[in-house]
Each structure stands twice: as C-alpha cells, then as structure tokens.
C-alpha cells in the first residue's frame, strides 16, 4: 500500500479486500477456499507471500495453502507445526488487535522450533518502520471471529510490497480479512461435512435397500418356515407376514395366516412354552395346528428385533418341521420301554411305573397321607395315555403316550415322588407331603380297603410247546397271550412282559376279592386253544397276587408276587396229582 493518508489509496485497497472476500465465498471445496484465502492476501492486501496454517483434528497446524512464491509453496506445503510452538508464537511480540507482530529483534528465538517457515537474512532496517526479512506477522482465525472462539488456523504473511510494516489501515484490513476468511473456511468445512454426510447417508440407504432386498428374498424363498410377528401391545403375537414355506407347512394361505397369532395355532398344552419363548426369545419344540386340525411338531426359534430408539419392535420367528425327528424319537423311546415281540411295556418300564407309586417312607397313622396336589399335578393311577397334571406328563405339561415315552414319563414321576425327602416338596419351599401313599393290603383281613394289586403271571406248558413246535409257534403264543391279557384288564391298568413266559399286571383300586376275580378271569382267558399255522395249542397260567406299598421297592413287590405265584403253581400241581 502507498501513503495511507490519501483517501483514494484507501478506497482502492478496500475494493481489493472486497474483491478478495467475494472470491472466498465463491470457492467450492475446502481446499479451494484455503488456496483462495492465501491468494487473497497476495492479490488484495499487498503482500508478496502468504501461507494458511490450518488446525488439524489432533491440534497441530499444517500448511494447507501457500501463495506468492512457487519455491516457498513447494517447501512449505503439507508441513506440520506443533500446537505448542504455535501457541508460543501467538503469545509473543506486539499485539495489533487480533494480529501478532514478532519483530526480527525478538523472532530469532523461533528459528529452531518446528513451525515451517520461509525466511531470508537481510540488513538492518534503514528507517523505523522498514520491513525486515526476519519480521513475522500472524493473523489468527477463530470460529467465533475473536480470540474467545476456538482457533481455526493462522494466516502468516511476509514481504509487504511497499517494504514497510503495515500501518493502522493495513492492520485493520488484514484483521478484517482474517475474520472473513475464518467464516469462509468454517462454511467450507460445513459444506464438506454435509457432503460427506449426504454421501454416507446415500451409501447407508443403498446398503439398507440392499439389505432389505436380501432379507426379503431370504424370507420369501427360505426352505423352512419364517414369520414376522408383533411384539407387545394389543396385537402381541399377531402375524404380520408368513413366507411360502410356513404357509405350505400349515396348509394355510398367506392372507389367512395374517388373521392368526402363534397362540391361536399352538397346541393347548404348549401355550405356556410358547409365551415364555415369545417373551424371552430363544427356541422351543412344540406343536402347531394345520388347516385340517391335525398337529405337526416344529422347532420354533424367536429373535427379538429391536429399534435403538423405541425398544423391541417385532419377533422374527423361524419354524422348522421336526415331525420326522419327533416320530423317530417316539419310536426309539417306545423300543427302549416296550417289548419288541408283544408291544407290551418291558421290565424296565414296569419297574419305572411301579416305582412312581412308591416312596421309601412307609405311610403313617391310617396308612394314607393327605392328598395335596403338588406342583406337577396328581400322582394317582396308570394309563397308557395320560394328560396334563398326570405323573407321566411331559416337562411342560403336554400329554405323553406312555407306550412311546413311558420310561421318560415314569422316571419324571419317580423323581417327583422318591427324590424328595419326606415332609418336603423337593425345593419348592412348602413343607407338605404331596405324595399320596400306596398301602399294601392285609390279606388276613378283608376290610374292604382298596390297593395296588400286582399280578405275576407264569405260563404253564409253554416250554413244551416251544421245544416241540419251535420258536415261531412259541412267539405266536406269547403274542396271543399278551392280547388276551390286555383285553381282560381296564384301560387304566398296565400289562407288562418281564421276559420269557412271565407277565405282570398292575391294577390299582382293587380289593382282595377283586384281585382274585381278576386273576381268575385272566386265567380263563388264557386257557382256550390258540391256533398257530392251523394247529391248536393250549397253555395254562399261574397267578401270584402281591400288594404294593410305600416302604417297599419295586423289586420287593415283584419278588413277593413271584413267590405267591410259585406257591399257587405248586398247590395246583399237588391238587392235580391228588385228582389223578
């Protein structure tokens, strides 16, 4: 700038500053804005060299733009000065408003710090305000336009074209320019951040659309059933959507599925299990009702899909057909607990059922404790098919076919009875005896009491048939005897095969005379000839009647009935010899 007292010079300078500021606002990117800031100092404010030092995220300052000297630009661009060194500089020298002027007489202490600089030596000034090559003039830029804001960067200028240190007007112009430059840089950063955010948002939306499409395809074309259900509120469990595989599995169209919840379709005995699974997420095996009202076993897995703002929103349910596996499990359970030849419960199943009625503590007083329902239902009676509350119910109260899962059911019931010390309920916190004691009847006095009769049956003459006609005929005889025994007992009674030609009948609620009558009926049912391959063969049967009671083991009960059977067999043999 020339003589500052001349108004037309000031006006020309003001126009140059205005033009430089206008160019700041026309820059598009942050890099363009920084370079425009440096060039505006050279073109509009009359300095031969200018550098823009920008604060990085780590706090240090990097030379982001240089204008006025190609060699200086090549040397300085991209170099970094520490924040500590820059703060030292901004605290030194003379304060010209927001500017910092460090004369060459003080600046020599900065020659060895890490701030990038372009300096040349020169002679001492010839007059008071002559610019020295080692002088430094810094224009800080703040986000709030003043030192109260956050430091955004520093404009460093050198070599005024008039060779003089700037006067009041030149200082005011540089300070005003630095203020406008800070605004332009902040705006450029804001635009850059917005552009990056928009790009990121677009990418996220594209990824979301791709993810939604992938999910849709995976949902629709999954080989196993999938459903989306409401979580919480009045419509809890209502199906929003079901894929084709689930519709085929249940035999229902998609439009019809949307009218249901899984609670509408689940087997009544599995509702509790479903509700626990729906509330907590996880996996359960249960039965769902098909359109023809039949039930199919499925493995149901729930995933709670949550919204970061509003919490859980819906359940994603995966439904897998496990009907074949369940059928196979039932077959295996049946084989483990039933005789392969006759289909009757085997020895292990018989002992399990019998043990479920017995405990190690003999009954007190009148022989029967108070019948208080336990947490798993009543413990009275035997049945091939039992329902909820039965001792042979499954772990979630579902009906269990004893013929298929008898060992498991009886073991469960046995646990409820025998594994709990007398006077407790096995850890449920109530000191009451939930077990209904079984009392062995006194055979010497028939007072009309009822008990659990154990009829031990041994076939007479079977060995000779087996030896004479072969195992094929012997097996046919055993099958027919099993059929006749089963036909001669009540639905709630148990007929089991111990092995060989020995059978056992468990019949609850019988008196002494009732048991004798039952043994006689069964013996008479066995006596008629049995036809095998056109040949008629005949077997007899000896029965021993024992009575089960708490304080006895299953083996003790069976041994007692076995002994009575041999007594009865010998007495019948002696009677036959006397008659002959």
Automatic annotation (TrEMBL):
Chain ranges of the PAS domain: 211-270
Domain of life per record: Bacteria
Keyword field: Coiled coil
Residue ranges of domain GGDEF in the record: 450-580
InterPro entries to which the protein is assigned, alphabetical: Biofilm_reg_signaling (IPR052155), GAF (IPR003018), GAF-like_dom_sf (IPR029016), GGDEF_dom (IPR000160), Nucleotide_cyclase (IPR029787), PAC (IPR001610), PAS (IPR000014), PAS-assoc_C (IPR000700)
Span of domain PAC: 282-334
Coiled coil: 187-214
PANTHER family named among the record's database cross-references: BIOFILM ARCHITECTURE MAINTENANCE PROTEIN MBAA, DIGUANYLATE CYCLASE DGCP
Protein name: Diguanylate cyclase
Lineage of producing organism: Bacteria, Bacillati, Actinomycetota, Actinomycetes, Kitasatosporales
